[in-house]
Amino acid sequence: MTFYESITAINSGIALLLVFLIVTNPSQKNRKANQWLAGFTGLLFYLFFEEVLDAWGLFERVPQLELIGQYVVLSLPVLLLMVVRYFLEPERKWLWSDWLHFSLVVIYWMLSFPVYFVDANTFHKLEAAPAQPIEWVIGISFFLAFTAQTLRYTFVSYRKLRNHERNIRQFSADDQGQNLTWLRHFVIVFLFMFLVFALMEIPAVSRWEDPLQVVYSLGLLGFGYFAIGQPEVFPYSFTEREVYQELISEEPLSTYSGSQGEQFQMEKERLLDYMDHHRPFLDGQLNLSKLAERLEIPPRFLSQVINAGFNENFSSFINRYRTEYAQTLLRDSKLNHLSIYQIGLEAGFHSRTVFHTHFKKVTGVSPSAFRQAR
Length: 374
What we know:
Blueprint: H1 3-24, H2 31-55, H3 58-61, H4 66-88, H5 103-112, H6 120-128, H7 133-169, H8 181-199, H9 203-206, H10 209-228, H11 238-248, H12 262-278, H13 288-295, H14 299-310, H15 314-331, H16 340-346, H17 352-363, H18 367-372
């Protein structure tokens, strides 16, 4: 077995293990999304395992099996979009219109269906025969359609995740994990994999297939690490999820929240007073819904007050207060026995990474450097 075949077999084993781990889903988080993610990873497994089957000579005996890999390639961008959709909309229900996304797969299956009724010798003869003009036209048209579909679905998936990343900051102060950055990065990796797949037909590129398989291995391991360790995207109550969905909807805001009027100014001053005297930011689980409930104002109006009144999203607004409070704690020599992480927890930060990121964003230095320079 060559190096290429060996590393491909390893990749198929990694992908199969990931399918098992995602399907079992011990934490029971993001269940519907993980069902689609398992399906997507299963297709990746087959693409790698296909090379193993070819090494065993199975395609020589039953050449029609090669078509399965082509169906898989056509289905991958569709399943990627479904993975993204169900991560962003956990309660989403399957619609009949969703079947239309698989139109290209069905068309290709119908065009290739007659091939299943020929024997292996006839199949190889047809494969070796010079292509007719109509075959060139169909082949090129189909490749262009496949390329357009892959680029479109990848772009749509990426755009949805970017929008989610912005939206979640309007609702949660601790968006690490919930922002699905790992999945957004994987969408970029998937696009890279597609481009490599397309370029492999070029002889000058195909000679790099061995190191590219190693890159695929690293990509699978990274994908598996984040996929298995994924947190709950929406760890909120049903009411809080409704508030979030309303917040990101396209419905217009209440009429009184659109200007810097008396009502707006009054709520802005009340918010400032509440933040100074009650320090709700010390609650590590604080979100827009909880703060709006304490202030007894509509969540969307509170979001508008923060966005327009302070030129910040909810995450930046709350974490600015936490950072200022953390600075006070770091200046206090009586608290030297507390670690930097403990200071972050005392200030309301629920994550070490979020604490360091926002602290440096506000002060320009890390918490450790700030403590040393006091």
